[in-house]
Amino acid sequence: MKDFILLFRQGANEQSQLTEEEAKAVNKRWYDWISDIDAQGKLKDHGSRLEPAGKVLKPGGIVTDGPFVEIRERLGGFIVVTADDLDEATTLAHGCPILEFNGSVEIRALLN
């Protein structure tokens, strides 16, 4: 078994127009999806949601604000799962609610 990180990317404003009721429904879909992975014994770390703003440190000590307006996708959060291989980790990513909002899930193995 290996550990994989599932990184959630989406457009900067994809969910900003949701009503409170719609947002609650989306949050429930996230909860249900992650609970299903957990019930399979595959959830290693609940990860975290990320604030949209941050900083970027570049070589030479240059610090800029980020993410940038011209970026089409932003990193919104992550979880860590355990799977036999990349294909199984990718299968676990199916059903992720971010996909309903034109987002994507990046699946990467963690090096131990």
Break the fold down into its secondary structure elements and pairings.
Elements: E1 2-10, H1 20-39, E2 43-49, E3 54-58, E4 62-66, E5 74-83, H2 86-93, E6 104-109
Antiparallel strand pairs: 1-5, 1-6, 2-5, 3-4
**Number of helices, counting only DSSP H or I runs of 4 residues or more:** 2
Range of strand content: 35-45%
**Going across the major beta sheet, what is the strand order?**
2-5-1-6
Helix content: 25-40%
Quick one: how many beta strands?
Answer: 6
Q: Report Rg.
A: 15 Å
Question: In one word, what is the shape?
Answer: flat
Which structural class matches the secondary elements?
alpha+beta
Note the run of SSEs as H and E: EHEEEEHE
Main β-sheet: number of strands, strand sense, barrel status? 4 strands, antiparallel
- Cα distance, first to last residue? 12 Å
Mean pLDDT score: 87
Unreliable stretches:
none
